[in-house]
Every structure is written in structure tokens, then in C-alpha cells.
Amino acid sequence: MLVVMMNDATDAQIARVVDVIKEMGYEGRPMPGAQRTTVGLVGNDGRVDGSRFESLDGVAEVIHVSRPYKQVSREWRQENTLVTIAPGVVFGGSEIPIIAGPCSVESEHQIVLAAQQVRDAGGSALRGGAFKPRSSPYSFQGLGKKGLELLALARRETGLPIVTEALDDEGAHLVAEVADCIQVGARNMQNYSLLRTIGRLGKPVLLKRGMAATIVDLLLSAEYLLAEGNTQVILCERGIRSFDPSTRNLFDLTAIPLVQKLSHLPMVADPSHGTGLRDKVIPMGRAAIAAGADGLLVEMHPSPDNALSDGGQSLYPDQLARLVREARAIADAIGRSITSVPGTAPVAQG
Ligand code: PEP
Ligand code: MN
Predict the structure, then answer these.
(1) What CATH number has the domain spanning 83-338?
(2) Cβ < 6 Å from ligand 1: which residues?
(3) What's the pTM?
(4) What ranges do the domains of the chain cover?
(5) pLDDT in tens, 3-43
(6) Ligand 1 centroid to 73 CA: how many Å?
(7) Distance (Å, rounded) from C-alpha 325 to C-alpha 319?
(8) Is the CB of residue 35 less than 8 Å from the CB of residue 185?
(9) Distance 63 CA to ligand 2 centre (A)
(10) Nearest atom of ligand 1 to the alpha carbon of 129
(11) What is the homologous superfamily of the domain 2-63 according to CATH?
């Protein structure tokens, strides 16, 4: 339930609403907006009687949220939530950041070179897995803690913020010490205890859609993070399983405008895992920007043919530069722009 305050409601009137919610056994979360403050009621698992609020001073109206997910819904918050992972790298506004880098961190040379190439291509954040969720237990599992140290080194060298995945509770605490944004992978989207842990770590989170998850499943998983008090959540379409083996996954472009209508959280797209095919990444990356994506997550490797994971879907560095260039033209056509961070490639079209 949401208690919408009048434009001129005083701090004391807002505090009174929060107190009444507390007396009822729930938690009240004031959310200041551009025009007025709303107070969200959290902790209820059913309909709450709102009549008590209607007579309180400063209250304009009481809204019952009809969706199964509450705090992630547009009913709860009309304006887009802006998620800032580093100064100038903001998701959900008119600027569109591009996160790129290898699937896995493999060595100091590889990740520092990749970071420089991402920066030079015009990317604004570096991705790379230190802890890898591999389908086979015999595949490369990532460098673990050492991989995190190498990511921190790559950030020092380039200034790019780091997005990297946490697989379990223990790893989540380690990742939170280094990462600017914690990735929850498709395989863990419905690991609710991990979501609760990560929701409490106070870091921005990039939550990827599970490979058999509906849009509502994705939003309910995000709700776990918000229920722990973390509103800095970015959602990500990364393809879903289909009957057709022509591509690794079926990249669901419609998910982008669908989620943006239902939720105030930013929605980014990963055309790398979404297609699994290098030559499909640029066209689908362009399409995602055209569809309104608030960011891209793209795999790029200095030498994809030698990659320890996902080489076949990783762009060559010059291909990333081309994707960023083309994304700029598309963003411009829809009144948006691709984020430029200081020291990255010039905005001018090549
Ligand atoms: C990744 O981003 O490298 C990854 C493992 O992605 P997903 O969880 O979408 O498979
Ligand atoms: Mn990968």
C-alpha cells in the first residue's frame, strides 16, 4: 500500500504516517518525489485497511498496489529509478552505459588489456567473472579471489567501474568489497537466500533474467532485493531457452519495453548470452538500444579464440568499438545518448 502525501505536506505529517504504519506492525518508507512524498507500507502479505490514513493531516490518497511484486512496480514509484554504479555511470536516465569485457578474468595481462580496450572503444564499465557458474564442473571455474584482485587492478589502470558476479553467500561478501555492481547470474535468479544476502550488502546489483523465468518471476526476484532495502537494482534480459538450437538462447527484445512499463527499475540487455553467436551480437545490441534498453552488457575479449569461456560469443575489440559507434547513432535517433566517461573514445561519429 502507498500513502500519497499532499504537495505541501510537512515533515511532521509524513513522520506521523510512518508512526501509524509502525503502530500497525509494518514498516513505513518515505519516498520523496519531484512533486510530493509517498510513504510505502512494507511487511504486509495481504491487503491492509487504508482508511486510517485517509483522515490524517497531509494525506492526499491511499493506493493499493495490485501487482504481486510491490516495490519494483510502477504503481509504487512512477519515476524511473536511477542506478549509479560510479560517478557519471548511471542507468535509467537518458544516458545509456555500455558494460563490456571478457566472460572470465583469466590473467593480469588479459583483464588489464581488455579494460583498456573497453575504455578505448567507448565502454563505460568493465565486466568479467571471477566466480564462474559453469554448466560443467570440469570447465574453468574462474580465478576466484585472485580474479577480484585483478579486476581492482584493471579499475585502477583505467578508471572503469567493475561489474562482476557473485555465486554464493561467501563470494557475495568478497565481491561486495571490490565490485561497483554485483551481478546475479541467470542460474541464480531464483536463489532467494542469495538475493536476500546481496540485498543487504548496500551495493548496486545487476540481476539477470533466468533462462526459464517469466517477466513476473524476474520482477519478484528483484522484489527480494528491494525488500532488503536495496533500490539500486538493474534488470537484464539475457535470452531464454527455446526449442530452436539455432541460437544459444532466444533473445527476448519485447522484455525490454514490457519490464519498463511494469517497473521503475532500469532494464539492460545482454546480446552476447542472448544469442551466443558473435556475428549476432552487434545487430541485436543495436536492436536492444532501439527497443529502449537502459544499457548493454557485452562480452569482448582481447583474443576471443583463446578465451577460457564464451570465446565464440565474444566480440573482438574493434567490433566493440563499432557497436558503440552504431549504438550512438541509434541512441541519438531516439533522444538518448551513450554514456561517455572521461578518457574514453570521443563522441564524434567515425
Ligand atoms: C555471464 O554474464 O558471464 C553469465 C554467466 O551470464 P548468465 O548468468 O546470463 O548466463
Ligand atoms: Mn559468459
Answers:
(1) 3.20.20.70
(2) 103, 129, 133, 185-187, 208, 238, 273
(3) 0.93
(4) 2-63, 83-338
(5) 999 999 999 999 999 999 999 999 999 998 888 999 999 98
(6) 25
(7) 10
(8) no
(9) 42
(10) 3
(11) Phospho-2-dehydro-3-deoxyheptonate aldolase; domain 1 (3.30.70.1140)
